[in-house]
Amino acid sequence: MGIEFLQVKKVEEWRAYHAIRRHVLFDLRGLDGYDDTHPDEHAPGHMPLLLRKDGVALGTVRLDLSEGTTGIVRLVAIMPEYQRQGLGRILMSEVERLSASRGLSRLEVYAAPDAVPFYEKLGWVMVDPGKISPLMAKEIESSDHGSGSGDGPRSPL
Ligand SMILES: CC(C)(COP(=O)(O)OP(=O)(O)OC[C@H]1O[C@@H](n2cnc3c(N)ncnc32)[C@H](O)[C@@H]1OP(=O)(O)O)[C@@H](O)C(=O)NCCC(=O)NCCS
């Protein structure tokens, strides 16, 4: 089955998406208050996305398309036991491919301080280190080819 990158739509996909985010970004950081009913998840132009390997959901990200040709990447998370195995890189390359296919030329993220070296490895640059979550950005090349082509993960988007 391999790696799949898909937009969250079905009930079981929403369940996996929220479970990963709650676990990685809240429980493991000692935070509570994760709201799986937040209206932002369903706002126009907001794309909740799931990375699965062999049918198992292991990573999430949300891409917000609502700001012209700049997309905002939110709440990137890979399950802890699968971190540092290249899945974050695959997830972000799929986000870039999807963004390019939607005509975006720039991505921004309010990075967790721990994750800054990860984004730097992937070619992101620091825009504003002064924030609690530093603002980073990456310029991307637009594409006319859409997503889901080539040898990458299956992307039914
Ligand atoms: C940050 C995160 C998404 C990275 O995913 P990952 O699957 O571990 O990353 P990868 O294995 O694809 O790593 C890609 C590259 O970044 C490097 N990297 C990843 N995390 C790193 C870190 N914390 N510090 C330094 N380098 C890091 C890897 O070594 C790798 O480099 P290489 O290709 O030269 O070997 C994941 O660790 C995670 O979910 N962390 C907790 C939640 C979080 O902080 N999310 C970001 C919110 S903005």
Please characterize this protein's 3D structure.
By secondary structure, the chain is of the alpha+beta class. It has a single domain (3-139), classed as Gcn5-related N-acetyltransferase (GNAT) (Aminopeptidase, 3-Layer(aba) Sandwich). 24% of the residues lie in helices and 31% in strands. The chain contains 3 helices and 7 strands; from the N terminus they run E-H-E-E-E-H-E-H-E-E. It has helices spanning 11-26, 87-101, 116-121; strands at 3-7, 46-53, 56-67, 70-78, 106-110, 125-128, 135-139. The chain has a 7-stranded mixed β-sheet, sandwiched between helices. A hairpin with a 6-residue loop joins strand 6 (125-128) and strand 7 (135-139). The longest helix is centred in the N-terminal third of the chain and has 16 residues, at 11-26. 27% of the residues are buried. Coenzyme A binds next to helix 1, strand 4, helix 2 and helix 3.
| Mean pLDDT across residues | 92
Strand content: 25-35%
The secondary structure category is alpha+beta
Per the CATH scheme, the topology name is Aminopeptidase
**Whole-number tally of structural domains:** 1
| Terminal Cα span | 17 Å
Layout of strands and helices, then pairs:
Layout: E1 3-7, H1 11-26, E2 46-53, E3 56-67, E4 70-78, H2 87-101, E5 106-110, H3 116-121, E6 125-128, E7 135-139
Parallel strand pairs: 4-5
Antiparallel strand pairs: 1-2, 2-3, 3-4, 5-7, 6-7
The protein binds coenzyme A.
